[in-house]
TrEMBL record:
Residues 35-52 have a biased composition (Low complexity). This is Ribonuclease domain-containing protein. Keywords: Hydrolase, Nuclease, Signal. It comes from Streptantibioticus ferralitis. Residues 29-56 are annotated as: Disordered. The lineage of its organism: Bacteria, Bacillati, Actinomycetota, Actinomycetes, Kitasatosporales. Pfam families: Ribonuclease. SUPFAM superfamilies: Microbial ribonucleases. The keyword Signal applies. Transmembrane segments: none annotated. Residues 1-25 form the signal peptide.
Length: 144
């Protein structure tokens, strides 16, 4: 027996919806560029994304951290070769995510002879964290 076009229309629409939904979810997490740095600008953490961590407004960050946020939003150029690398998250302070979810960027410390202890860490979900004690503690950055 031959099917009528109207009988297969719901199945075709369901397949189309599934394909479109799958493509947008895949693209959501593929925002990296060569060197591992995010090409999409990380947005501020929403209050619900603080995951119980203390928060800090972007405007309250040190000027060097605000400058680093501007570089991240612009996609670079970054002053340190390790900027944009995958953050290992060995301290287990940030929420658990797959490897490659987080990337770290140096926040210069005035007077330091090396990279110092300050970093911005961004997540693929557009959350942003700040540490000034080399990953021992983090604050979720809000209000960008």
């Amino acid at each position: 027996m031959r099917r009528r076009p109207l009988q297969i229309l719901p199945a075709l629409l369901a397949c189309l919806l599934l394909a479109l939904t799958g493509c947008s979810a895949a693209n959501k997490h593929s925002g990296t560029r060569a060197g591992g740095a995010h090409s999409a600008a990380p947005a501020a953490s929403a209050p619900g994304q603080s995951h119980g961590l203390p928060t800090i407004a972007a405007s309250q960050l040190p000027p060097e951290a605000r400058h680093t946020l501007q570089l991240i939003a612009a996609g670079g150029p970054f002053p340190y070769p390790k900027d944009g690398v995958v953050f290992g998250k060995y301290e287990n302070v940030l929420p658990r995510e797959r490897r490659g979810y987080y990337h770290e960027y140096t926040v210069p410390t005035p007077g330091a002879r090396d990279r110092g202890a300050r970093r911005i860490v961004t997540g693929s979900g557009h959350e942003t964290y700040y540490t000034d004690d080399h990953y021992r503690t983090f604050k979720a950055v809000t209000g960008r």
